[in-house]
Amino acid sequence: MKTTSPLLYFLSLIIFVFSTFTTNPTKFLVAADSAPNPVLDVEGNELRKGIDYYVLPVIRGNSGGLTLSSTSNATTACPLDVVQEQHEVDNGLPLTFSPVNPKKGLIRVSTDTNIKFAIAIVCVRSTVWRLDGYDESVGKSFVTAGGIEGDPGRETVSSWFRIDEYEGDYKLVFCPMVCNVCKVRCGDIGVYIDVHGTRRLALSDVPLKIMFKKA
């Protein structure tokens, strides 16, 4: 039986690859293009893990950046709820982002990400964001602090958010993919104004259009 020499086989393979690339080069670009786009700040720079940023509304109006505040009536309650500042000149508190793959330094759109206020607070709980349980009294699920950073899976599913492209800017989304067997209620993150006028972040039909500014 006649066999093909290794050299002839190698040359044939090179010719085949070159011919395929010249006729349909997009086949070889799929892997490079498959990664989601990086999230960009207001200066056009890529968001990176561990860097402090302000999350600001694109339309400032009567509101500013994001911060922590207590929405409880108790005077000693810890500031565990994520809210929007009342004044547009206030950038709020800086935040850091950490993607589900800790080895990846870039923050990319539509990728599970932890969001964390880059400050220390008196409360013993963490400043990592999480989606709280459904509040039947107002029909909302609110964004609070006290989440778990890293360790993707069933126990941390409420602590993962996404940044999605939205009308030329960005929005925050809760729809984690870190647990295949978990049932979660997906939705955009918007603003709910309570009876005290506090602008609380919650699942909403109207997303908050945001941008990122390096702190």
From TrEMBL:
Residues 1-19 form the signal peptide. The keyword Signal applies. One of its GO terms (molecular function) is endopeptidase inhibitor activity. It comes from the Eukaryota. Coiled coil: none annotated. InterPro entries: Kunitz_inhibitor_STI-like_sf, Prot_inh_Kunz-lg. Keywords: Signal. PROSITE patterns: SOYBEAN_KUNITZ (PS00283). PANTHER family: KUNITZ TRYPSIN INHIBITOR 2, KUNITZ TRYPSIN INHIBITOR 5. This is Uncharacterized protein. It comes from Rhododendron simsii.
